[in-house]
Specification:
This protein is α/β, with parallel strands linked by helices. It has one domain: Glycoside hydrolase/deacetylase (TIM Barrel). The chain has helices spanning 3-15, 32-43, 59-68, 106-114, 120-138, 155-165, 183-186, 191-210, 233-240, 270-282, 284-292, and strands at 19-28, 49-52, 74-77, 144-145, 173-174, 218-220, 245-250, 295-297. Strands 1, 2, 3, 6, 7 and 8 form a six-stranded parallel sheet that branches. It is globular and about 50 Å long. Residues 1-16 and 306-314 have low confidence and may be disordered.
């Protein structure tokens, strides 16, 4: 950032109340190249934290790399019901798995859930096992949590997660999947998906707040692959979204062949999206955009339940 831009950013910050931005990289441990990319961004201080897929075959190696790097960012938990095999034997959670012993993919999972074929007892057993595996791998209870593919937004699933986390003191930070309705028009990309998530997320956010769980006021960054090819993608989000406490969800990483056939295909754009997001976050323009929008990058432990501000949906 040159002197003129720095002076302009400083003047902007003096004229507006300080805002806090949590930049959370999802899917740590999903594959080796993804974890490496996240750790590289952490060394540049552009990330608040990341969340670990504990049932991934690459989870343990990812945690080892995180430790070797000096734990450069908060390691949180990414409860999962739609990727790879469960932590528990498939026979213990039969409603969650297909004939191959792996979790149902998201589309099938949702269809079975709406038909009443996903048993909440199985969800609770598996997520308790995932929670315990997180503690065993990381050596700490998670302070930062969001569910893979937002499955915890559905009441029958989300209530299970809150019941498990209710036992943890202080309560961990949980992502609130909600954005102002005006942002759907202000920011293009995945508008139908974002509207659907917003409807579910606002209700779950109210439940989280009533239960005493800290969280963000608004969520930024939800989109689909084509839009993250634009250099101004994050700048547009940060410059337009209101609020004092905002989380930016992202999925950065290097090209990760281990994801093909598990999390994506060669043609759906999801593999390239991670690469595109990595480059956007690695570019000096990202931290300039953070400052110009009046944000400082915060840490999830800043929002522990022992003194967090209340965040109200509009």
């Amino acid at each position: 950032m040159d002197a003129e831009k720095a002076l302009g950013a400083a003047s902007f910050l003096k004229s507006k109340p300080a805002r806090e931005l949590l930049v959370v990289a999802d899917d740590f441990g999903i594959g080796p190249a993804t974890s490496i990319g996240i750790l590289e961004l952490a060394r540049k201080s552009v990330l608040t934290g990341t969340v670990l897929l504990v049932n991934s075959p690459y989870a343990e190696a990812g945690v080892t790399s995180w430790r070797a790097a000096g734990r450069p960012l908060e390691m949180g938990w990414h409860p999962n019901l739609t990727l790879d095999k469960p932590v528990l034997p498939p026979g213990v959670v039969p409603s969650l798995v297909g004939p191959d012993g792996c979790f149902w993919p998201l589309g099938v999972f949702l269809k079975r859930m709406f038909l009443g074929r996903i048993r909440s007892q199985d969800v609770e057993r598996e997520w308790r096992a995932q929670y315990q595996r997180f503690v065993a791998l990381v050596g700490l209870r998670p302070k930062l949590i969001n569910s893979h593919q937002h499955v915890a937004l559905f009441p029958s699933i989300g209530i299970v997660l809150l019941s498990i986390l209710q036992e943890q003191r202080p309560h961990p930070y949980i992502r609130r999947v909600q954005e102002p309705w005006t942002m759907l028009w202000a920011i293009p990309g995945a508008r139908r998906k974002r509207a659907f998530l917003n409807l579910l997320g606002r209700r779950m956010s109210r439940w989280q707040e009533r239960a005493g769980f800290p969280g963000n006021e608004w969520l930024a960054g939800v989109t689909d692959p084509p839009w993250v090819r634009r250099q101004a993608f994050f700048r547009n989000w940060l410059g337009r979204i209101p609020g004092r406490v905002v989380e930016l969800a992202c999925h950065p990483g290097h090209r990760d062949e281990s994801l093909i056939g598990r999390d994506c295909t060669l043609v759906d754009g999801l593999l390239q999206r991670r690469i595109d997001e990595w480059h956007l976050l690695n570019h000096p323009d990202f931290l300039e955009a953070v400052a110009e929008a009046g944000f400082t990058i915060a840490h999830s432990e800043r929002f522990s339940s022992a003194g967090t501000r209340k965040c109200h949906a509009a």
